[in-house]
Write a structure and sequence with these properties.
Elements (H helix, E strand, L loop, with lengths): L7 H4 L1 H17 L38 E7 L4 E6 L2 H6 L8 E7 L4 H10 L4 H8 L6 E5 L8 E12 L2 E11 L3 E6 L7 H8 L10 H14 L1 H18 L8 H30 L8 H67 L14 H23 L3
Parallel strand pairs: 3-7
Antiparallel strand pairs: 1-2, 1-3, 4-5, 5-6, 6-7
Helix pairs in contact: 2-9, 7-10, 8-9, 8-10, 9-10, 10-11
Length: 397
């Protein structure tokens, strides 16, 4: 699989046309990706002010899709989870005195009016609000200190990739970390945090014995861990392709390899900035991050490095499989052309004899001989046998 194909694999015009035709047939059956292979820029009008003020959210269009809000308050001995039906009444109340951490998750941030209420309540910075709505954002960490009305918070943008409907799909996750409050905003509805909610319900959980920063570490660790099942699926598929890559009759195989390379490219595009984001968190000296959380972030960084190495390895394997398939197809084409050339070479002298004695001339030697046909057949057999023997001696047959 590590062998490289000959140079003429990529330069043969006729063979390249066949490959493009196979790719066209294969891509017509492939499902589209939710996230494009090409990066997109956010919508920015030239000359506009940076950031989105909380007051500006009220003028944005309100969609029909409902937004689900859930709040979990917990400490070492207690945990209370509830769905928020009335956002105004919820925000009018303070966190219980016993609660060490409050986690509020906004599922599908499609209602600017609801986002505005949380932005006003928790004094979210306009630059962070802008990054929330201008998707997709590159994963990053922004530290906001105490500035006038804005409280000290850590703003984190992450990208979550999941395997849905037999394809890779990407989603933006925004996290605000305060001293005792964590806000998470999901781009699309889903139950990605259910494992964390279940851990919070268990008495003696490490989550309940640590601060809000440790909860943020757990959220990021969950986002990173979603990559491992996807890579496992791609690893199994690559193993299956390795057993069939030399079967050049399966013309859909090159399309499947090309589709997998696109998915791995999407994974790399989403995971690579996460690596820098986690590294920045490790070295962030913000007051909302403790030394305990930074220690655990090292483990997440190790995971993201392992994921990057697997992605690069699988991309190399997929590229090698594609090149091996094209090399095998080219070798089979060469064998076919070789056989056809030898058959044509055998029949060239026979065709010459048939043409000469088939001319419409009366004075052709041996034309009226009663044994002429037998002599002609014997000559054809002799010529054919001699050429086959010569081909075998030369190693061409």
């Amino acid at each position: 699989m590590s062998a490289r194909p000959p140079r003429d694999v990529r330069t043969s015009v006729g063979f390249a046309q066949q490959v493009r035709a196979m790719l066209g047939r294969a891509s017509s059956l492939a499902r589209p990706f939710r996230s494009s292979r090409l990066p997109k820029l956010g919508k920015h009008e030239p000359g506009t002010a940076a950031g989105i003020e909380a007051a500006d959210l009220a003028s944005m269009a309100r969609p029909t899709q409902s937004v689900h809000v859930q709040c979990i308050d917990y400490d070492r001995d207690h945990v209370e989870a509830r769905d928020v039906e009335d956002v105004d009444a919820f925000l009018a109340q303070h966190r219980p005195d016993w609660a060490a951490v409050r986690w509020i998750n906004i599922d599908a941030m499609s209602d600017p009016q609801i986002i505005q209420k949380f932005a006003v309540k928790y004094n979210l910075h306009p630059l962070a609000i802008e990054d929330m709505f201008h998707t997709p954002q590159r994963p990053k960490v922004d530290a906001f200190g105490m500035q006038g009305e804005y409280l000290a918070r850590l703003f984190i943008v992450a990208r979550m990739v999941r395997w849905i409907d037999e394809q890779v799909q990407s989603e933006q996750i925004c996290i605000f970390l305060g001293h005792k409050t964590v806000l998470t905003f999901q781009e699309h509805p889903g139950s990605v945090w259910d494992p964390i909610r279940q851990r919070l319900q268990r008495a003696g959980s490490r989550l309940r014995h640590n601060d809000a920063g440790f909860l943020v570490y757990t959220l990021i660790d969950t986002i990173v861990d979603f990559c491992f099942p996807i890579l496992e699926i791609h690893g199994d598929r690559l193993e299956q392709m390795e057993t069939t890559v030399l079967d050049v009759r399966n013309r859909m195989l090159v399309g499947r390899i090309h589709s997998m390379k696109r998915e791995l490219l999407l994974l790399r595009r989403e995971v690579w900035p996460m690596r820098k984001m986690i590294s920045a968190l490790q070295h962030e000296s913000h007051e909302c991050l403790t030394d305990t959380t930074r220690v655990y972030l090292r483990d997440v960084y190790d995971h993201i490095v392992q994921i990057m190495e697997l992605i690069e390895t699988y991309r190399d394997v997929a590229t090698g499989l594609e090149e091996t398939y094209l090399s095998a197809a080219n070798a089979r084409l060469n064998e076919t052309m070789k056989v056809l050339t030898m058959v044509a070479a055998i029949f060239i002298p026979i065709s010459f004899l048939a043409g000469v004695f088939g001319m419409n001339f009366d004075a052709v030697p041996g034309l009226h001989n009663t044994n002429a046909f037998a002599v002609f057949c014997g000559a054809c057999v002799t010529i054919t046998g001699s050429m086959i023997a010569w081909f075998k001696i030369r190693g061409w047959w």
